[in-house]
Structures are given as C-alpha cells and as structure tokens.
Amino acid sequence: MIAKVIVDVPSRQTDRPFDYEVPKDLESWVEVGSRVGVPFGGRVLQGFVIELAETADIDPKRLKSISELLDPMPPLLPDLIELAKWMSDKYCCSWTTALQAMIPAALKGKAERYISLNDDPEFSAEEYGLTALLPEDMMDWIGKQKQVKLETLQQRFPDYAPAIKEALREGLLLEQTSIRDRLAIRKVLTVFPPEDEAAAREALQSFPARAGKQRELLAFMLERGEAMPLQAMLAEAGGSPASVRALVDKGLLGMHEVEQERDPYAGRNFQRTEPLPLMPGQQTVYERIAATVSRGESQALLLHGVTGSGKTEVYMQSIQHCLELGKQAIVLVPEISLTPQMVERFKGRFGDAVAVLHSRLSNGERYDEWRKIRSRRVEVAIGARSAIFAPFERIGLIIIDEEHESSYKQEESPKYHARDVAVRRARQHGAAVVLGSATPSLESFAAASRQPAPGKESALLPMPERVGSRPMPPVQVIDMRSELQDGNRSMFSRRLHAALIERLERGEQSVLLLNRRGYSTFVMCRSCGYTAACPHCDISLTYHQKSRALRCHYCGHAELAPKECPSCSSEHIRYFGTGTQRVEEELAKLFPGIRVIRMDVDTTTEKHSHEKLLKQFGERKADVLLGTQMVAKGLDFPFVTLVGVIAADTSLNLPDFRSAERTFQLLTQVAGRAGRHHLPGEVVIQTYSPEHYAIVTAQQHDYAAFVREELKHRGVMGYPPFCRLVLVTMSHEQLPLLSSVSEQFAERLRGLAADEGVLGPLEGGLPRAMDILGPVASPISRMKDRYRFQCVIKYRGNIDVPALLRQAMAPFIEGSPLKLVQFSIDVDPQVIL
DNA sequence: AGCACGCCGACT
DNA sequence: GTCGGCGTGCTC
User: Fold this and answer.
1) How many Å does it take to go from CA A174 to C1' B11?
2) Concatenated DSSP letters for A666-698?
C-alpha cells in the first residue's frame, strides 16, 4: 500500500504529495488524515496522509517507508484535507500550512534525534581503530542510558561535536529519529478498587487489628467502587501512601498512572437553562434557520439583529434543532467576546455536549477540548476563528456571531477568513451558515441582499426589535472644536464631565472607550521638531507611562524615554496625542477617589486577566471601565448607564477604505453597552467631525442609512463589495533591490493579466477586469529592519488571481539568490491602509 | 526548510 | 595542492 504524504516543509518546491510505502504492520492503521513520521532528504519529518493508493507514481527503488504513525486516530478527516487544498489555492499558502492550522498546536511534532551505542556483536570498535575517538565516560554514559537525545549529549560534551559526527559516520554510534509532540500529558497516580470484590470483602474481615488504616482505606474503596486519584483519596479518607501501597502489594487494590484530561470547566456547575419563549421576530428567523438546517441546504443566512434583539437565544434553539436531527454545530465568536458569560450560556443549555476552544487555554487544555470533538463526545463546538476546523463529521449548522469582526481574519499565513472558510466547509457538509450581527460587514450585507434565485427566499433575516422593547439609548455627539472655542482644553467635554459626576453620585457605572493604548502617541521636541521613531520600523514611538519607556507597537522595540531632546539637547520634549494611560491619569486628577479599571493589551497579557478585570467591574469594584475596543464587545453589565467615546476620530481618520465602516460598527457596538437593563442609558460621543455620516448614522442607530452612504463612496472609489482586493507586500533589507524586484513583479503581473484579456481599470464596466496599483512604499515603509513595498490588486469577475500571482512571483522565488525578497499575499485583506 | 554536492580564494 | 566559502538543487 502506498500513502501520499504532504510533508511539513512550507516551501513551494515541496508543496506536493510524496509517495511512501506503508509498512505491513501499519496497513490497518494508516488512513487518509493520519499524521505520520517519514524520512525526507536525510531526516525524519512530520507529514499528513492525504490519499492511499495501490501503486506509486515513482520508481519503486526510490520509494521509502513511513517510519512511524503518530496518533492512533487520524487527527484530520478527508473533508478537512480537501478544505486545506482549497485554502492553499485561494490564500496562496502551502498545503501543509493550511493543514497545520487545522490541528491543535500540541500536535505540531518536531523531530528529535536519539543516539545509542552500536551493540551489534559483529561490530568491533577495536577492529576499526575507533576506541580513542570518544572518551570512555561518554561511552559509559550512553551505554547506561541506552539512548540519549543528541541535544543532551552535545550539551554535556560540548567539545566533541565533530567526534560524535564521525562516530555516527563510522557506525560506532547509531542514530534514531522520531517525532515528539509538543505535549505534556499530565499523568496522575490513580487507585483502583479491588478486582475481586468478594475476596477483598473476605480479606477485610481478617485484617489484623493494628492495620486499622489499611482496613479503613480498603473499606473506603469498596464502598466507592470506582477509581480515584491517590491524592484525592488520601485527602478524603486519610492515611498515607505507604498504607495504600501495602494494599496494592497484597493485590487488594490496583494503582497505576492514568493520563489525565484537563477540563478547564471541571467542577463548575452550570445552571441548566431551558429554551425561552421567542418573540414573533425571533420566531420567524428561527423557523427559517431550522427549515434550512432540516433541508440540509448549505445556504448562508445573514441575521441582522440590533443589539439586544436576542440573537443568542435564536442561535441556541437553532442548535437544539440541529442536534435533534443528529447533526453537529459549530459556533464562532470573536475571541474577545468568548467571555465566561458566553460560555456559561452555552454550557447551561447544552451541558457536557459543548467543547470550548479559545486562545486562553493552554496547549494541553486546548488539545483535550479538541479530542472531545474528534472522539464524538460532544456535539457543539464554540470557539474563536480556528474552531471552524472542529473535526466533526456531520455538520448541520455553523453560526458566526458578530460576523463583521476583523478578528475572523487571520493575520498570519494562512491568511484565511473564517467566514469564507465556513461557507466552503458548509457546502461540503450540507450545513446552514448563520452570520449574525447588528452591523453586518458591507460584503455580507451586499451578498445577502442580492435578489434571491427564483423560488428561493431571501438570505437576509432582519430582527429589528429589542427584547422587552427597550429603547435604544440616546446618543449625544459633542463637537470638540466648539469645546475648545469655549475654552475647554481638557480631554473631557463639559457634557461627559458632568455625566461622569452624575454616575459617581448615583453609584452607577461608566464605560469609556479610547481606541489607542499607551500614554501618548508621539513624542516631539518643540525646539527642533525631532520626533522619536523606532530604529527598526518607520513609525513613531508611543510613550508608556508606567515603564517610562518609548515603545514601538509593531516590533516591540522599547527604549527609555529621553529627558532632553537627543537631537538638540533642548528640554522642550513634549508628549502629544492621548492614549488610555493618559486618560487614566486625567480621570484620577479630575475625579479624586474615582475607581478605574483600565483594559487594553497592556493590562490583559496575563492568562485570566481579561476575565478578572471584567469580573471586578461586574462586582462594581470600579466606577469606570476604561479601555480600547475590547470594552466595546459583548459586555452586559446592568449598572452601566453611561458610555463615553473619548475620540471617535481615532479610527475615522485612518487612511483605510474601511475606516468609516469600522467607526460606525465600533460606535454602534459600544453604544449598545449602556442601559441594557432597567436603568436608562446614555451615550456621549466626542469628535472633531460631528457631521461625518458614520457618526451621524451611528447616533441615529440607522444602519440602513449608513450602508446607503458608504456604498456610494465604495462605488466611486472602487472598493469592496464592488470588487475584490488582494494585497501583495514585498520586503527586503536593501531598498534598491526591493524597488527593482517589485517593479519587475508588477510588470510581469500586468503582462499576464493582459494575456488573459482582463487588464484595465474596473470603471469600464466589463464583467471581468483586473487593475494593478503600485508598487508603492507600504504605509509602514519599514518594519523590523526590512523595507516594504506593496501592490494592491482590484478585480471583478471570475479571475484566478492566485494562479496569476504564483506565475508572476515564480522567477523571484525559485532558485533566486540567498537574500531573496519576501512576498506576502493577503487575499481579501481587512486593512490596506 | 535542511542537507549534500559542486566550483573558486587563503592556507600548509 | 587542500580546506572551506556558500550558490543551487533535491527531497518519495
């Protein structure tokens, strides 16, 4: 039997299947989706079996065998292997990169090399004159250990690296390679009840009086009747390990190590909840989803429900319906809203049938949750982006909550969008996709609004009513220019200042949003105009108050903040721009005694810090929750009655085609945080551009009006959803080389597009057109000591852009000199700046 | 990605 | 005349 294997080398030249013989004893174990260790170019690598065949495509003499099978159960299924192929085509990444993204990090095996002595009786070191090659204590040590890791050996005898190499060549030492997972399986010493219960009861009667403890322990285990960890047993029943061991030696109890699964939610009792009665609007939407799931139709439905319209309840009842049909469901949530609150709701409804996958789990915990899915112990997976790869076999429903969230796009290779992968995977399974949002992305909205095919219903499911008919909170827009004219130079407008005081007096809570972390955004000398910039990136440094450091938010570079100007030695160094740290300081100054929780990437790096901060706020241990956009998402606190946006312009003025959309979404989301319960809420938005349509429409809670206006702009400028984009970024240390290569690349690409007959501006109205902009320097023209150039490709119609790109890049990748230009391709980029 | 094979400068 | 530089090409 022959296995076609994708080896774990993410390069273009190895991005194809390689044939291997399956050893006889593994034939019944190796399947499509198996993870194997294979010899490849003189070493052993991890690979995935993507196909089994009778005969090899190459000369059988060149054929090698699979050296080991890495899991008893294949971690991948055929549908995922096909999906990975699709991803590698669509997103221009290698097949193995896509495959790796689908399995938990714990299964990313690395080859380890082991050394042992050659104990073949035929082999004689004396005969070959090799006795003096290696020191005796090394030989003894290896002999005693039987097998040692090459790394360890080299650490212990650092001067002998060449000698070890020679000994391997001469056959004095032997080498074995095997793949070791990056996985620490926790083993727990576990005590088992007696195998022969009758005999044990009998023995219990005839125990000597002085072995009272043993008798007690044996009685305890007989009564319990099931295994338990030794530590827990001793804690409950008392006694020492010695007395247990004595019982084990007598054969009355069993004891051995057991692999333990970590359940991060073990021991937590989730309050079981029953389905709530649906409002008419919810009911209609639910019925539509349920019918689609029942038909096994892979349609993508857009659930456009305002904040507080009860989307989650609709999700849960739809999942219930899906499970009743014997199918499984995947729920994707933005990482940031995968809060304990959210998990609780799903665990409460579906109990142990839910696996939770999020980034705050350790590798081991994540692997355990994943295994629950793979071994069919759960029916529902809820998690961030990568949960879309949950290894279910019969998916009936995929839900993507807050579908407009940019975190569904992975920024590293494979640069996939979970929404697009979901639609593709749903097609393989005949599953329904539900995209839920109060502020759908323009792409999804446009797709769902398209005239349905004859006989089909619209894919757009509106839910405009809020549960309990609570009104949307009133939103005040404050023009910060007139504040300044009236002599208010503070970062708080008079209205926001007064509103904060009211909350403090009434003991209610406030949420303040500022989409910029750090203390100040740039540092400038007022004498000479010097600004502090990162030495590795073309970007100004941000001052962080706590560490008194200037930091680069792109590469992490940090330096001590200067007291005087490094350029002209003047003392007129000033900090400009406001970050969350500055606001925190200002709050303390203006409102003495105010309790503030600051939440941004700087305060939430620790494992559970995010939850901890939210919990504290929920317990009303603070008056103000101040943070970057992470405070805008999915929080639900009854005592929050004020939401303040300190500067709506931060996101509005970014030179990116999505900046208006992002601002509208952010403002709408954050406004939805106020007054969700019995207390009425209030929203204050501060801005320097109060007349901008993104702000006006957000103030009026008018999504439709925003979309109308935004679509006009997108149409004029030629941006999605009127076309699709691909961003090609090229980088190199040397600017002239980069400049020349990027020009050549763009020229080749234009030539190829012209050959296809699609080159030209999109305004022409042709159904198939492709426009290549650039190359130009990237907005961040240097990052981590590499210069960056980019091309933006706009296209419309059915054009295989990845294929054209691959052809255009080929001469710069294959066999190019050592210092090659790096190409990075982002299909459907979220940000092009 | 690694590793081996192969063609030109500073050493015995 | 050799050791070693890293350019280039292959890996079932």
Assistant:
1) 35
2) HHHHHHTTSS-SSS--EEEEEES-TT-HHHHHH
